[in-house]
User: What shape does this take?
Amino acid sequence: MNTNVRKFSVEPYKPLQAAVTGLHGLLDHIGHSSRLEFVSLVTYSSQLEVLVAFTRELDVIKTELLNIKLSDKFNLIEALKGVEKLILMEWGSGIPCNVILVVQDNFVNMNSLCLPFSFPGNLFICSLGPEVLRNPLLPVTDENMVNFNIHLMQPEVPVSSHGVVQMFVKLGEKHYASWSGNLVCGNLNSKITLSPNPEPCFKVTDFEYNTYTVDNNLEICGFIELKHLGSPAAVSRHLVLPYTPPSPYHGKGHGSRHPSHSGEGDDESLDEGHTPSFCVLLHGALKVENMAALCQVGNDWYGVLFSWADSKKKSNLMLSFLEPGRDSIPWLGDMNALHIPLEAPADDEAFPVKPADKKSYSQNGVAWIRQAGIQSDIQKILRHARKIPEKTQQFYKELNRVRRAAICLGFLSLIEGLAAILDRECTLLPSSTHPACAIQLTHAAQALRDSASKDHKYSIAPMKMSF
Assistant: This one.
C-alpha cells in the first residue's frame, strides 16, 4: 500500500529581511504617533556611512532600507563612536536621543563598549541571533548621565521573522507612544499632546531623592506678563498641539497600515477638526496680550505656557517645565502663595520695584583713553547748549554724565574748565538765541563751581523758568 506523504515547506529565517520588515513597521508607528521625530539611517562595515541624514521623510528611509546589504566586517565599538559623533554634531549634548542598534550576533561585551554616551537618551540593542543571550547586559550607570539607559530587545525563541517583527512592535508601543492629557483652566478644557514626550524629573537634595512625574491634567493657575516672568530655568520645553484621535488600522505590527473601511474613524477625525479648541484660543490670547500662563504639571511641579515664534509668520504654543519645587521662579516667591489681588496695585507699586539710584553697571561707562574722547564729550554738551530750551534735558543729562566721570577719575580740574567753557559760550551767543539759553548756561556754570557738585550722587537740575 502506497501512502502519499505531503511535506510542508517552512520559510527559512532571514535576519536581514526580518529586520527590514520590522523596521518598516516601527517607522509606520513613529510616523503615526510621533510625527515630529527626526530619524536617521546609518550603517557600518569598514567605516561609518550615513545613508539618510536626520529627516522627517520616513518614506526615504524605508526605500533606503531595501538597499542595505550584509557585510563581512563589523566593529561595534567604532560604530557607536561614529553614532555619538553624528548626534553631537547635529543636536549637541543636551537633547535626548534614542539609538536603535540592530545586530545579528547575540554576544555583546559590555566592558568593551564606550558607554554611556555623552548625551541623554536610550540605547536599544535589538538582537536577531537564533540563540538565547548567554551574557546578560547590565545597565550602565554614570553620575553625570543619569538619563542614559540601555535596553536589550530580543525576539522569542525559536527566532522567526514574525518574532522579530513583534519585537519592533513592542519597542514602538513602549517607547514611541505619544503623550496625551487635558489642559484645564476653570470650566474650559482641551485635550492636548506634547512633543517630545515629557520625561520624569529627578531632584537630588542633601537627604532625599525625589522623582517628579507629569500628571494627565495640566491645570492653569493664573496668568502673568512676560516682562514680570523673565527667563526662569527650564528642565525641558515641549510643543503643545491639539489632540487628534488615532485612526483605526488593521494588520498591526507587520510593517503595513490598512485603514478601516467602516468610516467611523474618518467621521471622528472630521468632527474633532471642526470642534472649537481651548488650546487654540489660549494660544491666540497669550500671543496678543504678550502674557504667559502658569500651570501645575505635577505635585510641587510647575510649568509655563507661552507663545513662541520661529519666524514672523508662524508661532506655536510652547510649554516649559520649570525646576521641580515651589520656588522655581525665585523672584516670584512661593508658587502656592500667588493669588489675584483684590485691588489693582498703584503705578508706583508696580512689580518689579525699580531702585531709586541708577546703578553704575546699568549704564555705559565713560572711557577717556585719548584727548579726542574728552573733546568729543565737551562738544556734545555745547551742541545741546546752543539748542536750549528744546535740548534742555539732553544738555543736563550729558553735563552730569561728564561731571560724574570726572569725579570717579579724580579729574576735578575738568569740572572747573567745563564751567569756564560754559561762561565763554554764554558771551559768544548770537542775538537771535533764545533768552533761556544764556540763563541756563550761567546757572550750569555756577552749579559746577558749587561744592555740592563734587558729590557723585548729586545731580545738577535745570533752572525753573516762567517762559
